[in-house]
């Protein structure tokens, strides 16, 4: 989750949207979450989305609060068990 804050009265560019089909941006109040589906260990679309959000935040005078920024990885792969 990315958390950003801005000076009161500044105008924000409202076109911060996901640029990849495998990612979704969820925005609520002053929090933004990137949800990304990483398949075949290809995480470049997710990483690019995070960089795009960071650039968008800077361009709109928002400051990324690194103390509130988290990355959660959930792995849905299942290992095959051998039956003896």
What do you see in this structure?
The chain has 84 residues and is of the alpha+beta class. The protein has one domain (2-64). It has one helix and four strands; from the N terminus they run βββαβ. The chain has one helix spanning 44-59; strands at residues 2-5, 23-28, 31-36, 63-64. The longest helix has 16 residues, at 44-59. Mean pLDDT is 77; it is low at 1-13.
* Major sheet attributes: 4 strands, antiparallel
Largest sheet, spatial ordering of strands:
2-3-1-4
- Count of discrete structural domains: 1
Summed up, the helix count is 1
- Give the CA-based shape: elongated
Give the DSSP E fraction (strand runs of 2 or more residues): 15-25%
Find the count of extended strands (DSSP E, 2+ residues).
4
Radius of gyration: 16 Å
Mean pLDDT over the full residue set: 77
Query: Helicity range of the residues?
Result: 10-25%
Name a few traits of the molecule:
single chain; 84 residues; alpha+beta; 4 strands; 19% helix
């Amino acid at each position: 989750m990315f958390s950003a804050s801005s000076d009161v009265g500044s105008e924000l560019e409202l076109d911060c949207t996901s640029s990849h089909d495998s990612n979704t941006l969820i925005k609520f109040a002053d929090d933004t979450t990137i949800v990304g589906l990483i398949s075949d260990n290809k995480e470049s679309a997710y990483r690019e989305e995070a960089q795009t959000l960071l650039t968008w935040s800077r361009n709109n005078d928002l400051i990324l609060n690194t103390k509130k920024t988290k990355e959660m990885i959930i792995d849905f792969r299942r290992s095959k068990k051998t039956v003896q």
